[in-house]
Specification:
By secondary structure, the chain is α/β, with parallel strands linked by helices. The chain has three domains: 3-164; 180-461, Vaccinia Virus protein VP39 (Rossmann fold), CATH 3.40.50.150; 462-550, no CATH class. It contains 21 helices and 15 strands. The protein has helices at residues 3-14, 17-20, 29-46, 50-59, 65-76, 96-104, 109-117, 120-129, 133-141, 152-169, 181-192, 216-228, 243-255, 296-306, 323-331, 351-354, 361-371, 435-447, 510-518, 548-551, 561-583; strands at 204-209, 233-240, 263-265, 281-284, 343-349, 375-380, 393-399, 409-414, 420-426, 429-432, 454-458, 463-470, 500-505, 526-527, 541-544. The strands form three sheets. A nine-stranded mixed β-sheet has the order 3-2-1-4-5-7-6-8-11, with helices on both faces. Strands 12, 13, 14 and 15 form a four-stranded antiparallel β-sheet that branches. The longest helix has 23 residues, at 561-583. It is globular and about 100 Å long.
Amino acid sequence: MNTESHSQTAAFLWSVADLLRGDFKQSQYGRIILPFTLLRRMECVLEGTKAKVLVEAKAHQNKSYAVREQLLLRASGHQFFNESQLSLGSLADAQISDDLLTYTQSFSKDAREIFEHFHFEDFVQQLSAADLLYQIVQRFAAVDLSPKKISNFGMGIIFEELIRKFAESSNETAGEHFTPRDIVHLATSLVITGQDDKLKPNKIVTIYDPTAGTGGFLSEGDEYIQAISEKVTVSLSGQELNPESYAICKADMLIKGQDISKIRLGNTLSDDQLAGERFDFMLSNPPFGVEWKKVQKQITDEHKRLGHDGRFGPGLPRVSDGSLLFLLHLVSKMRDPREGGSRIGIILNGSPLFTGGAGSGESEIRRYLLQHDYVEAIVALPTDMFYNTGIATYIWLLSNNKPKERKGKVQLIDGTQHFSKMRKSLGSKRQYITDEQIDDLVRLYGRFEETPQSKIFPIEAFGYRRITVERPLRDEQGNIVVATKGKNKGKPEADSSLRDNENVPLGQSVYDYFEREVKPHVPDAWIDESKTDALDGEVGVVGFEIPFNRHFYVFKPPRPLEEIDADLKQCTDRIKQMIEELSA
């Protein structure tokens, strides 16, 4: 079955929306079409072993649930089974809602749970009340989704097409759970490109997403690896907070025949359900600028109790934006470099680059990441790329096993002009990145050269020491006031209203800088040497920021004065003429 046929099948399945129009909101179509598609596919997959499962179910009906489940899974030959004699095609109109729910409740635990998270029972009752249930069941029963006709890979393409249509039809909230496919493709390509050592035949490669959404990054990572390597087993792991997105993610993987045992439901920051696990590749698009007040206690407790033995040792960002917590969480799941290390691709908004001054939680996190040489590259994306926001966004690429030429360096890539306009905007998404533009950005990254769009910096370039500059307090006559007691006895008292800070580039002597840049302007000033850094104890508090835009700023000289004057004269002449016409 080719791609065109897959698209036609997806379009036919989505056409069920025509029946729903009027009785259901557009944003609800996917919540009905996706579980019914899953149900029909699973039914078709199980057809070959259905009779065997029914025999086994009868023979072992008195055994404990756990034992029966193992025996029936073995009989089905798949990761799921159904022990009901019913099927979509055999359901009668008379008591269809009861029979349909009995049928779905006869699946094995993992599959049954997916329908629960879709709130399938609620929608079945609503469809029944609208007198639509029998029609919809018949429509799906008539579609051949058997493995003989559609492979797992093909079914994955169909299901993802339906997920995309769902995202587009409900784009008021879609951005929280769906990452646009072009962004997924770009981030995945950047993370996995050039990783041939990890993708040798017979290797097991692990991919993880702590904010899995509907599983876009996991699916794309799997597809990417399967396309470029042979005989590599890809193991997918993820955690998702939203029950419906979690259900879609598991359904998508079940449809493709993938192991769903490491897809978990819950809050990754407060309840890491894959604690202790390590991964080769990690991809994530955490929510932008979302506060973490709800889980503040658990995170602060972990930070204090475990320090660097936990996930959040380097520091905590302000409660209004938890993006950097997800980044620290991912870093904690890196493999030992001696075992090949790990690579991370995470999409963040602008604030993690520069929010927070020296000594703040954000600055300390950046310091930790940069001084441990984890940050490999940061790619600035065009605006208007996401369904629910048009803000500037960046892909951070991290590695704990950098190639020799990248050690101690960070590459910044300006991809803000790599976009094409969409014919029809989807929510806030008005632009997309073409495959050619993705290839171009991956090449810019891979070449690791200085160009107008690619700049390379040593790690120290992003660091500074903030020194506190004091000036003496003077009395009304202008005389310096001297301290009469305490440690500073006999020394000038500082005037807090004249206190100032200077940021000294890291690696420079704060005293040389002070003599050169401060003393000539304020000869009576001095450095407050009691303000030292908490980590290295030296004078001045260390700060790190990545002023991305400053490095790509191109100065445009103003127009010549004569040109501006001519424009102004033309404008005033036109105003004069209008006044004359009014008063004539």
